[in-house]
Design brief:
heterodimer; A: 11 helices; globular; B: mainly alpha; 5 helices; DNA-binding protein (chain B); RNA polymerase sigma factor (chain A)
Chain lengths: 196, 137
């Protein structure tokens, strides 16, 4: 019933001043700022925008600041600023044409459908290729490989922990290892950029 | 098992986002040192940028407000608009009106009527007024 109750409660938002004050504090906190930058990097890597972290972070902040004018992207009360900004950055980093529709060249819908279909197939192939290359980075690291296979299957954190008999600490250690490897391999970046 | 439309990369990115949230201060600092990040410089740069962004947004808000005011003026039919008719509020019990008639409702008392007649007689009695030159006859 919690969902129903939440619907009945009007959403309250922080003001622009509350947002900028909190952000100023965050920018002075080295650990929080590093986390924010890592989150920006994470969404950029995911969306083939490696190197755009600062731009994505600034765009996220601007959109929230403009929310008093536009009425969108307001920071809800009770939501941690870091989590909120991470969501906005994720959205911004993923903004790109879904099917590569070219304004002047693809005027009819049939052409657009063909492109969409081929993009979907390419996407699936790319996912498989990405997975194979990514797994190869963890040669000899059985825990990481098992974790990635479980993740590919769509298993949740609790399912993975139960299935592999890991506690929270063991789980987090593996995820941290995977994160570091992902950040540290420029060849994955090249592959994501279509150069691999 | 949770099956959804998310790709492997989506799930991996979500897991990493959560891992960053849950990472200890020590882990974050250690990782930043290894990466050679100058986070203090980055923080300084972001704070300077934030100040310029605030100005930009304030200017934008001002332009929006001006545009809205212009739009309001342009679309309004007339400059003079009728005001809503004011109705007397409920009067408290001890309220005393200024005029006699109002004090007695619509009807005048006999004494009021005689008083009014006397006032009118005085008003139209030429002898009761000085002449135009101010000379008394």
């Amino acid at each position: 019933m919690a969902i129903g109750m939440a619907k009945d409660t009007p959403q309250e938002f922080n003001t622009l001043k509350e947002f900028t004050d909190e952000l100023d504090l965050l920018f002075r906190d080295d650990v929080a700022l590093r986390k924010l930058l890592q989150k920006a990097r994470n969404w950029c890597i995911r969306n083939n925008r490696v190197g755009d972290e600062e731009e994505v972070l600034q765009e996220a902040v601007m959109r929230v600041m403009k929310s008093e004018i536009t009425g969108t992207r307001q920071w809800p009360k009770g939501v941690a600023l870091m989590d909120f900004l991470s969501g906005v950055m994720r959205s911004i980093a993923s903004e790109r044409p879904k099917i590569g529709f070219r304004k002047n060249a693809d005027k009819d819908m049939e052409a657009a459908k063909d492109i969409a279909s081929s993009c979907n197939q390419e996407g699936q192939l790319f996912e498989k290729e990405f997975m194979a290359r990514f797994m190869a980075l963890f040669e000899g690291d059985d825990d990481s490989q098992l974790y990635l296979l479980a993740l590919e299957e769509g298993q949740s954190k609790s399912e993975i922990m139960t299935g592999l008999d890991w506690n929270e600490r063991e789980y987090n250690t593996v995820v941290q290892r995977v994160k570091r490897t992902r950040n540290a391999h420029p060849e994955m970046k090249e592959m994501l950029n279509g150069e691999g | 098992m949770a099956k959804d439309k998310k790709t492997f990369q989506d799930r991996l990115a979500e897991e990493i986002d959560e891992a960053i949230t849950n990472a200890s201060d020590e882990d974050i600092r250690k990782e930043a040192e290894e990466a050679g990040e100058d986070i203090a410089a980055f923080g300084d740069r972001m704070r300077v940028w934030l100040e310029t962004a605030k100005d930009e947004v304030a200017e934008m808000a001002m332009k929006e407000a001006k545009a809205a005011a212009e739009q309001g003026r342009a679309t309004r039919d007339q400059n003079v608009v009728s005001m809503a008719q004011r109705r007397p509020a409920n009067r408290p019990g001890n309220f005393m009106p200024d005029t006699v008639a109002a004090r007695h409702g619509k009807k005048l008392s006999e004494r009021d009527r005689k008083g009014i007649e006397k006032d009118l007689e005085d008003l139209f009695d030429d002898d009761a007024w000085p002449d135009k030159n101010g000379d008394e006859e």
